Amino acid sequence: MPEPDGDLILDRLIHEPGRLAILTVLSSVSDADFVFLQRTTGLTKGNLSSHLSKLEDGGLVEIVKSFVRKKPNTNVALTPVGRERIARHWEQLERLRKLAEPSS
Amino acid sequence: MPEPDGDLILDRLIHEPGRLAILTVLSSVSDADFVFLQRTTGLTKGNLSSHLSKLEDGGLVEIVKSFVRKKPNTNVALTPVGRERIARHWEQLERLRKLAEPSS
DNA sequence: GTGAGAGGTTTGCAACGCCAACTAGTTTGA
DNA sequence: TCAAACTAGTTGGCGTTGCAAACCTCTCAC
């Protein structure tokens, strides 16, 4: 089965809209806590929780749990790997979009 | 539950990598047959078939089946609606990507 | 006619996303 | 003081999806 164009394979872990939103927010803030992410992405708690687990499993983010003012606090930040992979992902999308432009 | 940014909701029908690839190819060629799409997208037949059905159900593409040199031939083209929706989708992605750029 | 190949479609299943329900602890207030 | 309400998440159940393998129908070469 012929590959389409070499490396135009989109990373599903990143591509999923919910996670893309999370990663996008994280790209611009260095780190964020659960509540902040929930507000900015519009995801439900459950959703956000499971997406974060997957991103952590994939090594894209680092999660640090602690207690802030006696309440549980989940802090999330991109790992260097995550930062690189999301950058690559945007490049892939850009490349794909270019293909779609009929030179017009 | 607060909406994240109003209309930054990604269209899942379009966003799915396989279909994004199909739509991207179709954006640049006006119409294409099954085999051509399979080659350019790298999808398997089964996959391509089911994705095309979904795109058709969603009104994004028009599918015309006929016989070419006695063999079945499936021809696919974007509908005006499809063309518009994929354009909007790229806009949404662009907006999202902009959010990720920390002004650097 | 028989085998190989083209051009797809259908099926079966694992993985995924999503919401609702639940857990664990804290604050409020009667 | 003790229960109701709130904060901050996690887990479970379920429907949907994507994927590849198996299958189908027809054609052509021999």
Give a written overview of the molecule.
Two copies of one chain form a homodimer. The first copy, chain A, has a three-stranded antiparallel β-sheet. The radius of gyration of chain A is 16 Å and the shape is elongated. Chain A has a single domain (12-99), classed as Orthogonal Bundle (Arc Repressor Mutant, subunit A), CATH 1.10.10.10. The first copy, chain A, contains five helices and three strands, in the order H-H-E-H-H-E-E-H. Chain A is α+β, with helices and mostly antiparallel strands and 104 residues long. Mean pLDDT of chain A is 88; it is low at 1-7. The longest helix of chain A is centred in the last third of the chain and has 21 residues, at 80-100. In chain A, strand 2 (61-68) and strand 3 (71-78) form a beta hairpin. The first copy, chain A, has helices at residues 12-15, 17-29, 34-41, 45-57, 80-100, and strands at residues 32-33, 61-68, 71-78. At the A-B interface, helix 2, helix 3 and helix 5 of A face helix 2, helix 3 and helix 5 of B. Chain B binds a DNA duplex (30 and 30 nucleotides) through helix 3, helix 4 and strand 3.
